[in-house]
Specification:
single chain, five-stranded antiparallel β-sheet, 55% strand, WD40/YVTN_repeat-like_dom_sf, globular, mainly beta, Immunoglobulin-like, 40 strands
Length: 452
């Protein structure tokens, strides 16, 4: 059977390149010397633009304000005080919708209230209370329908993890409901959305020193379950959760027993796997994300920041990220072109990216019949070869080494079978790119190089 041909506008890419390292840290904040930064969060828009929020204040005053900046080509925009005030404003979180519009929340810790602001196109809205009830430590997630979900907690016992979502049409939040409850205080919650827009939540139970988990498939939150505890005598702290392309949740946390250790577990069927250490050396405050090929990426602190990936049942060797031993408070996000990391180094806020980590498929990570083969041709042309399993719409895109969308094109509706064709992007400069194919909702990617 002859391969089907397709004709599109000119595009380009090329031979597989070696994996890129983490980029040198870029300073994001522009605070005065007598100011300090604290917690932060990062999200990536559909065009690959990273958006960061953080809190900062004059040294030793703790009158914190919430700042925002995004990457604009090769620099960062001037930070904006989106809280329009200062006080005990901490624990900011941010998401970005499919139109590239960020929404941020943060805590007024002593007042135990949560406020939010959203980007209106040319400015940020005036901050508002999410609801009249109290709350601290907000965590956000956004689904494929652009619905923003919020998880938070309150002070005291009995412990409750609360859930709400943003109603964009009314510019308001749904009345909070209980996601989980227990006799002791619950805290350090985190939230993730899977491919079916189902919600997955984790938290620390201060009563048992363990990690709890619940799921919401749209009909309500499931009965909480406890993850296996590798050291019941110690504290399982600050859990983080992410879902892979198949909808499976993965969790990492900091275990405090005989030192500080980073542990990992995943849900297989209805059972959580026995936790394993991510590294043989002690570590603190892990964060994680999953790329489009279902590879898990974990970043943690250990005399600087380290990164390790898991595909299938194997882990890559740990990679040192930061050039300073005092790097801390990492937050991690992914896009089709790579990983995006925000972290504090000293009292400054930094950003780094790894274009070779996210979205670049390994053989074992690609679904059967989904491998993308790219051959670079001189003159800005590219030969694509791939298979589709069913009649579907397909599109191809190029992402540059900074994680930005450089070019995209629809391939139209394709029939099942093998396809190949020449495309070109003569308007793009020579360099390394990620070529991403999406066919029938199944993404695949390959690192390439454009040659003029």
């Amino acid at each position: 059977m002859k391969p089907r041909k397709f004709v599109v506008l000119i595009f380009a890419a090329g031979l597989a390149a070696t994996a890129a390292a983490w980029t040198p840290p870029e300073r994001v904040d522009r605070r005065p010397d007598n100011y300090v930064t604290y917690g932060n969060d990062i999200a990536v828009g559909p065009d690959g633009t990273p958006h960061i929020v953080w809190s900062e204040c004059p040294r030793e005053t703790y009158l914190e304000m919430v700042k925002y900046s995004r990457r604009d080509h090769d620099t960062w925009t001037v930070p904006i005080n989106i809280s329009r005030d200062s006080g005990d404003l901490r624990q900011p979180a941010v998401v970005v919708d499919s139109a590239g519009r960020p929404l941020a929340v943060w805590s007024e810790v002593y007042a135990a209230r949560i406020r939010y602001a959203r980007f209106l196109g040319d400015s940020w809205s005036v901050p508002k209370l999410c609801f009249s009830t109290g709350g601290i430590t907000p965590r956000l997630a956004i689904d494929s329908r652009d619905r923003t979900h919020l998880l938070f907690e309150k002070y005291g016992r009995p412990g409750v993890i609360w859930y709400s979502y943003y109603v964009s049409e009314a510019d308001s939040w749904a009345h909070p409901c209980t996601a989980a409850a227990g006799p002791g205080e619950l805290g350090w919650s985190d939230l993730a959305v899977d491919r079916d827009d189902h919600l997955h939540a984790v938290w620390m139970d201060w009563w048992t020193y363990g990690i709890g988990y619940s799921r919401n498939d749209g009909t309500g939150w499931s009965e909480p379950v406890r993850l296996p505890d590798p050291a019941p005598q110690g504290q399982s702290c600050d859990p983080r959760i992410a879902c892979d392309a198949l909808g499976r949740p993965h969790v990492v946390w900091e275990e405090r027993w005989g030192g500080y250790w980073v542990y990992y577990s995943t849900l297989v069927g209805d059972t959580w796997t026995q936790p394993v250490r991510v590294d043989t050396l002690p570590g603190l405050r892990p964060v994680l994300c999953c790329d489009e090929t279902s590879r898990l990426h974990v970043v943690w602190r250990r005399s600087g920041l380290w990164h390790r990936a898991r595909a299938g049942s194997g882990w890559t060797e740990p990679v040192f990220i930061s050039d300073t031993a005092i790097a801390m408070l990492p937050e991690l996000a992914t896009s089709p072109a790579g990983l995006h990391l925000a972290f504090r180094g000293g009292w400054w806020l930094f950003y780094s990216a790894d274009a070779g980590a996210g979205g670049i498929s390994e053989e074992r990570a690609i679904p059967a019949g989904q491998r993308l083969d790219v051959v670079c041709l001189r003159g800005g042309e590219l030969l694509l070869r791939f298979d589709v399993q069913e009649r579907c719409n397909a599109a191809v895109s190029l992402w540059d080494s900074a994680g930005r969308l450089a070019w995209s094109c629809s391939l139209g509706q394709l029939e099942p079978g093998h396809h190949e064709g020449r495309v070109s992007v003569r308007q793009l400069p020579s360099g390394i790119y990620v070529c991403r194919l999406e066919a029938g909702g199944r993404p695949s990617a390959a690192k390439t190089v454009v040659l003029k």
